[in-house]
Write a structure and sequence with these properties.
Layout: H1 2-12, H2 48-62, E1 81-82, H3 87-90, E2 112-113, H4 121-130, E3 141-142, E4 145-146
Antiparallel strand pairs: 1-4, 2-3
Length: 150
């Protein structure tokens, strides 16, 4: 009982730093939408020029990539290993992937991470920082697809 009382009293006297973001947790970058498209929007405080940059980047994110060399040089460079041919296919609405909701739903936004066991203090630190130690041949993520010849 005394230990619990001591814990609660000690918490009362801990220094607390309060960050002022105003009403929104993103501060000036916050957008007013709270629906499924909120992650697809540019930061609210972007200048006109920066919004143009955002739009260009967003088009690369949404449109499919093709294997190089290709007549479409602006969007070639897919591979050598990949899960799908476009970022948006996994990061639906610019967010995280999702589990299949039905038997006929694809699992394209899921990925398989892989790691070897740490064999040194340096590798143990890497696991703490990054979560994985890449396999020397396969890397740290299994991709379902590859360009021809790989």
């Amino acid at each position: 009982m005394w230990g619990l009382l001591f814990f609660f009293l000690s918490v009362l006297f801990l220094p607390v730093k309060v960050y002022s973001f105003g009403v929104n947790s993103g501060g000036a970058t916050s957008v007013s939408k709270t629906n499924n498209d909120a992650f697809s929007l540019p930061a609210a405080n972007l200048s006109f020029e920066r919004r143009l940059d955002f739009s260009v980047g967003n088009s690369f994110f949404r449109n499919p990539w093709v294997i190089a060399p290709s007549a479409t040089t602006a969007r070639d460079g897919l591979g050598p290993l990949f899960n799908t041919n476009g970022c948006q296919n996994c990061h639906i609405r610019d967010g995280r992937g999702h589990l299949p909701q039905a038997a006929d739903d694809n699992a394209v936004s899921l990925l398989v991470r892989m790691s070897i066991r740490p064999h040194s203090a340096e590798q143990e630190q890497r696991v703490l920082r990054h979560g994985v130690i890449p396999h020397p041949l396969y890397g740290d993520q299994i991709q379902d697809f590859a360009v021809p010849g790989v």
